[in-house]
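Human: I would love a firmer grasp of how sequence relates to backbone shape in proteins. Take your time, and here it is.
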Amino acid sequence: MGYMKKILLASTNKNKVREIREMLKGSYEVLSLQDLDCDVDVKENAYTFLENASLKARAYYDLTGIPVIADDSGLSIAYFNELPGVHSARFYKDYDYFQRNTKILEIMKDIKDRTAHYTCAMVYYDGKEEQCFVGEVYGEIALEIAGTNGFGYDPIFYYPPMKKTFAEISAEEKHKVSHRGIALRKLVAHLEA
């Protein structure tokens, strides 16, 4: 087996690490912050997904000297004026995701416009150049929680082309259509160019 280039994934989200490792399998050795015992918390206090991803990429590169992939992603719901958006991980912060999803469905039970979209802003930084890639996927808020795959808001994000929530489709199916999959494919195409 040849030498595999190391890339640090700037995330403590185990689900996100697993998902990106699966997508980069065979091409890169993806290290997580846990692999490096790096417990520095970079504050994601910017106003956009891209700015938050850039903050993380630069901070972790400065700490480790390893090329970094950082992303910030979230769900935006039309009815909530595009919230939770960049606040997705902190929306109803005292609730776990099951409770958050239940709360959103409760609030929206009589709402006709259920339009929503996921956004993923992904930044690759190697100390010299910063490259930014964005992926978006459009769907709607489901009428009920469905599925056990995925994580976060996936059980309430209904994807019309597949007639299922993101939590009802397999990891492989999700990688092909998800916001993170779209952004990562753009990033990988750049790395391989």
About this structure: The two ends are 22 Å apart (CA to CA).
